[in-house]
Amino acid sequence: MFSHLVDFVLVDFGSTDGLREWVAKNFEPDIRSGYLKYFYTDRMPSWHCPTAKNTSHVWARGEILVNLDCDNFTGPNGGKFLIQQFVDSSDDIVIQQLSDKDEGSYGRISMRREFFNLIGGYDQSLEAMGYQDVDLMERLKAIGLRYVHIPDPRYNRTVPNTHEDGCANILGEKVNWWQMDYNNFIASKRNIDEGRLVANKGQTCGIQQGIFDIYGKEQLFA
Length: 222
Fold this sequence. Notes:
The structure is a single chain. Helix content is 33%, strand content 12%. With 222 residues, the chain is an alpha/beta fold. It has one domain (49-211). It is globular. The two termini are 28 Å apart. The mean pLDDT is 93.
């Protein structure tokens, strides 16, 4: 009953390694059915994590939004598993599928779209990497959502990589991941302490123009 309720939104931010061709060759049935949606844009010359995550979220159309970083696995029937958590909960919740060892699964965050929109999404005023996931969850909790931690190892496997790998496509940065994480922590804490819970001035966030589907057709944001 859940398969038709789940779709995957893959956003390619200017890759040059043949990703589009590989996806088209190997996942054509999923693309045609709408189960997999591939979008391409070259509007992010330098990697900026909050903007990237916002882009995938605003181009998704489901009621429940799940951040799945490209180094994370869904786990068996991961979409069905998460939908059931929201169906069973009597509260408004934000779910984090963080492994006990935090091996790259910190960003596995799920929430209802209405609350993501209510707080303006990920804060694009933050630096390119670090702390954006904590900031999102803290603002969601501040508006009343209950935090739910699900460390089930079936649903938080990741591809091993380093902070240096994650920062490889940030241009012109003179600080490392740890410095950006600290700077973002300070900015986030100040905003929350002062009651500024809505990011991006409450405007629709992410990249909305210059987005193309896998067939090269430009998409209009609605």
